[in-house]
Write a structure and sequence with these properties.
Chain lengths: 160, 301
């Protein structure tokens, strides 16, 4: 099999609307990674009303939203009672719109992009998933783990 | 800001012990809109700019972006055209006190830190980082008289301060129908991070921060629009007689930088308390080193 995007990508992909809330997005993560699915989902492609890719929402975007502003100061304040802070922070995050925190600087590949070109982008840009676009349409998504899995047998020396 | 005594608690410390190591930068050819997104996403107040060769070429802060909004620059304006001059820097080996002095003399809130060989930026020194360091020092200090006396309950320390003692009195306020232009003029003049918005009967109805203003810029809202269209309608407040610890707790839980302080009733705002001020007072506040307390200006995070 040729080592190009279309042979490594997942074509049963999930997307989320830009107008969804963080709570809805995380519920979508949970469903997409639910029982019967082979992976847990920590990120998704964000689409507009026409289904065009307009952003990516990752776990990292949500974690940035959660990180308290002054944590570097109060992390040491053992005399301040912060019990319940996790609930408060999560509650505040739930209603935030996906479009306000998503990454809009998109990096995509085409179905014919070579495995090593994908690998290079993933390592340089610190991304673990890349949308595959064909003629402006989303056709799949390549995960770094699938890319590694593609090389499993060769790396292990099995079947030699 | 910046009164540093000769033999302060910070004597002997190097910049690298207080600096933060995550420095966000952006090529100066990128747009103002892109910078706004990063500032909001990372909850920071400035970005380092780099030139075509990746060398530091400038700094762009929320204030610079607010000024670009005021000047009616388009969002796709290149950052290099709105940035302040070259970043002011120090090296990680410099004494912390010398770095503070540079910040004071230049009336700036942050210094970018070079490695010893002066080849690359490795950190950023800002007042909140120093406040964090002071706090850690104070807690482990052998001369901390409360620890000496065997007072183990740290809550006792903070019980000594009320909000009134630490707040900045006299709050800048504007009217709900003042334009964003007017608000920006007020913010530049007072070098403060937010203005209180009042209605006709002088009741506080909202707050507009620099962050609200740069978001309005990003959303294409005309600076001729009135304040009430972009203000946060909740005025986070606390009573002047409240303990400082309660105020800090409230700011932590709301993830906000300042509280408006009221007396007797919530409508009667008498001052403002910033997180950095509150945290700073908690350090260097016992008799052992009362003289070492540094005064720092609100930087309106």
């Amino acid at each position: 099999m040729e080592p190009i995007a279309k042979n490594i990508m997942v074509s049963r992909f999930h997307t989320i609307s830009h107008s969804a809330t963080v709570a809805e997005a995380v519920r979508a993560f949970k469903e997409a990674g639910g029982p019967g699915e082979k992976r847990r989902v920590f990120g998704m492609m964000v689409v507009d009303e026409q289904g065009n890719l307009i952003g990516m929402l990752s776990m990292y975007d949500i974690l940035l939203l959660l990180r308290p502003k002054h944590i570097h100061i109060w992390a040491d304040m053992s005399d301040i009672d912060i019990s319940g802070i996790i609930d408060t922070v999560c509650e505040r995050a739930r209603s935030v719109k996906v479009e306000d925190i998503m990454t809009t600087e998109l990096i995509t590949v085409s179905p014919d992009t070579h495995l090593f070109a994908i690998l290079d982008i993933m390592l340089r840009k610190h991304v673990r998933r890349l949308p595959v676009i064909d003629n402006g349409k989303i056709v799949g998504i390549v995960y770094i783990s699938d890319l590694f899995y593609f090389l499993y047998d060769k790396l292990a020396g099995d079947g030699l | 800001m910046g009164v540093v005594e000769k033999h302060s608690m910070l004597s002997g410390f190097k910049v690298r012990e207080a600096m933060r190591r995550q420095v966000l930068s952006l090529p100066d050819s990128k747009s103002v809109g892109k910078a706004i997104s990063l500032l909001i996403k990372y909850k920071i107040s400035a970005l380092l700019l780099t030139d075509g060769d990746g060398r530091p070429s400038g700094v762009v802060s929320k204030t610079d972006i607010m000024n670009a909004y005021y000047a009616d620059f388009p969002l796709d304006q290149e950052l290099r055209s709105i940035a302040a001059a070259s970043p002011i820097t120090c090296t990680e080996q410099d004494p912390l006190e010398a770095a503070l002095e540079v910040m004071r003399q230049n009336r700036i809130y942050r210094l970018y830190v070079y490695d010893q060989a002066h080849t690359r930026i490795v950190g950023l020194l800002a007042y909140p980082d120093i406040v964090g360091l002071l706090y850690r020092l104070c807690r482990s200090c052998k001369r901390n008289y409360l620890i000496q006396k065997g007072v183990r309950e740290e809550a006792e320390v903070i019980r000594r301060f009320t909000v009134k003692e630490v707040m900045t009195p006299n709050v800048q306020s504007n009217r709900a129908n003042d334009t964003l232009y007017t608000l920006m003029e007020a913010l530049s003049q007072y070098r403060f991070g937010a203005v209180l918005i009042k209605d006709h009967s002088d009741n506080p109805v909202g707050v507009v921060s620099k962050t609200d203003l740069i978001l309005a810029y990003k959303h294409g809202i005309s600076p001729e629009r009135p304040a009430h269209e972009i203000m946060s309608s909740k005025v986070h407040g606390c009573e002047a007689s409240a303990y400082l610890a309660e105020a800090i707790q409230q700011m932590i839980f709301s993830d906000i930088h300042r509280l408006f302080v009221y007396q007797d009733r919530p409508e009667n705002i008498v001052g403002v308390l910033s997180f950095t001020d509150a945290a700073r007072v908690r350090s260097g506040s016992c008799r052992a080193c009362l003289t070492t307390r540094i005064k720092i200006e609100d930087q309106g995070i």
